[in-house]
């Protein structure tokens, strides 16, 4: 079929006019039938939720006397969050665990560490850094720093299991689920979800407890070794403790700005 | 053009095979699923959203809940009627609907969807709370 240039332009012009005219129609129909968020429904905070702009923890190592004290914290945390206990050490999931001063503070440890520090273990966990390298490494924003209170959180739904965050974290605070964790949880806490194979997990500063007005599980059973509070509030217990005592943080030379302080 | 017969026969067989599922299942529409409500769900009387809405929109609601709860730290959802609920699949939804096999699974199987919520969220939350 032969078609003149003039004829072609006419048809093209007419089609464009029809297309443009149809758009408002289509939009009107889409708006009428599409999903509409219920406008009246709203979300809110729990009335008892604890508020802070920068959560932090202070570990008073002077109060640590035995490994059992730290064991108690680990148990409380792992029970609360359905952390499995795997036999194979390379598969093990850790949210909070005990380590020696030399390992926690490799650059501060000298040949002559005080006798007390030499003989005790320290509880270590995610430091909820001010400038978290894991967050920068995460390609899906599954791990993110909550702007409101500085907690470095994990959204397990989004984690694709690439483990870049594990490589990025200088504290080894993150664990990967190489296996389905459910069979290895002794007693499932049904109020908190478990994880599935292929996601990374770590300490979340008990975000789910703070949201309902409770302190972290480890702090509650720590016999005063752990103190939790708002660093931005000069009246808070953590601020007071840090004002009165000399405290160190892990690997500060890396510029991550940890939120867990150790009074030594 | 000597293979006309073969080609036509082949085409007929092909058409028959391709349409087999349609005429085999003719007049045998799968019955729509019936969900079983637990005593607790019955006692509650109403869901977070009206019945029709929750039936078609629950996945979108859960998606919003997930982001709001996990990422924004808001934990309470107040519906259009002004009733407050904790935004939690494990502790709110599955607390009433603790019968996964007779509730969630029925429609999901019918609609041939396979959500994996239960890989992490326990389908039978704490009793008697």
How would you describe this structure to a colleague?
The complex is a heterodimer of chains A (264) and B (129). Chain A is an alpha+beta fold. Chain A has one domain (55-263): Alpha-Beta Plaits (2-Layer Sandwich), CATH 3.30.70. In chain A, 30% of the residues lie in helices and 15% in strands. Chain A has 9 helices and 11 strands. A 4-stranded mixed sheet of chain A has the order 9-2-11-10. In chain A, strands 3-4 form a two-stranded antiparallel sheet. Chain A has a two-stranded antiparallel ribbon with strand order 5-6. In chain A, β5 (143-145) and β6 (152-154) form a beta hairpin. Chain A is elongated and about 100 Å long. Chain A starts with a helix and ends with a strand. Chain B is mostly helical. Chain B is 50% helix and 5% strand. Chain B has helices at 4-24, 39-44, 51-72, 89-96, 104-110; strands at residues 76-78, 84-86. In chain B, strands 1-2 form a two-stranded antiparallel sheet. In chain B, a hairpin with a 5-residue loop joins β1 (76-78) and β2 (84-86). The model of chain B is unreliable at 125-129 (pLDDT under 50). Classes of the chains: A alpha+beta (264), B mainly alpha (129). At the A-B interface, β1 of A face α3 and β1 of B. β1 (42-44) of chain A pairs antiparallel with β1 (76-78) of chain B, so a sheet runs across the interface.
List the strand order in the largest sheet of chain B: 1-2
Biggest interface pair, counts: A-B, 30 and 31 residues
Give the CA-CA distance, first to last residue of chain B.
Answer: 79 Å
* Radius of gyration from the alpha-carbon trace of chain B, in angstroms: 23 Å
Order of helices and strands of chain A: HEEHEHHEHEEHEEHHEHEE
Give the mean pLDDT of chain B.
87
* CATH fold-type name of chain A: Alpha-Beta Plaits
Task: Briefly summarize what is shown.
Chain A contains nine helices and eleven strands. Chain A has 264 residues and is α+β, with helices and mostly antiparallel strands. In chain A, the strands form four sheets. Chain A has a four-stranded mixed beta sheet. In chain A, strands 3-4 form a two-stranded antiparallel sheet.
């Amino acid at each position: 079929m032969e078609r003149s240039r003039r004829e072609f332009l006419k048809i093209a012009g007419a089609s464009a006019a029809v297309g443009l005219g149809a758009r408002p129609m289509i939009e009107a129909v889409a708006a009428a039938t599409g999903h509409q968020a219920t406008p009246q429904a709203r979300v809110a905070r729990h009335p008892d939720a604890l508020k802070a702009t920068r959560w932090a923890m202070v570990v008073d190592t002077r109060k640590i006397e035995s490994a059992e004290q730290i064991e108690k914290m680990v148990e409380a945390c792992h029970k609360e969050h359905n952390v499995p206990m795997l036999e194979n050490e390379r598969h093990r999931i850790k949210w909070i665990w005990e380590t020696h001063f030399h390992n926690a503070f490799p650059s501060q440890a000298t040949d002559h560490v005080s006798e007390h520090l030499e003989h005790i273990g320290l509880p270590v966990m995610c430091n909820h850094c001010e400038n978290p390298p894991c967050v920068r490494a995460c390609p899906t924003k599954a791990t993110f720093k909550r702007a409101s209170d500085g907690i470095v959180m994990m959204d397990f739904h989004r984690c694709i299991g690439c483990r870049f965050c594990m490589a990025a974290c200088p504290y080894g605070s993150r664990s990967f689920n190489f296996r389905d964790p459910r069979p290895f949880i002794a007693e499932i806490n049904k109020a908190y979800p478990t994880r599935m194979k292929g996601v990374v997990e770590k300490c979340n500063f008990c975000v789910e407890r703070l949201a309902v007005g409770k302190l972290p599980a480890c702090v509650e059973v720590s016999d005063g070794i752990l103190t939790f509070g708002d660093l931005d509030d000069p009246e808070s217990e953590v601020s007071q403790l840090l004002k009165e005592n000399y405290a160190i943080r892990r690997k500060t030379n890396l510029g991550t700005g940890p939120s867990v302080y150790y009074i030594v | 053009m000597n293979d006309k017969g073969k080609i036509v026969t082949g085409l007929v067989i092909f058409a028959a095979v391709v349409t087999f599922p349609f005429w085999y299942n003719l007049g045998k529409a799968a019955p729509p699923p019936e969900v079983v409500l637990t005593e607790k769900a019955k006692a509650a009387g109403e869901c977070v959203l009206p019945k029709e809405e929750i039936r078609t929109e629950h996945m979108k609601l859960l998606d919003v809940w997930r982001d709001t709860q996990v990422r924004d730290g808001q934990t309470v959802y107040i519906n259009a009627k002004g009733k407050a609920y904790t935004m939690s699949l494990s502790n709110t939804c599955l607390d009433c609907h603790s019968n996964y096999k007779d509730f969630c699974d029925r429609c999901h199987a019918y609609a041939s969807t396979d959500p994996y919520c239960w890989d992490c969220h326990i389908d039978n939350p704490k009793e008697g709370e």
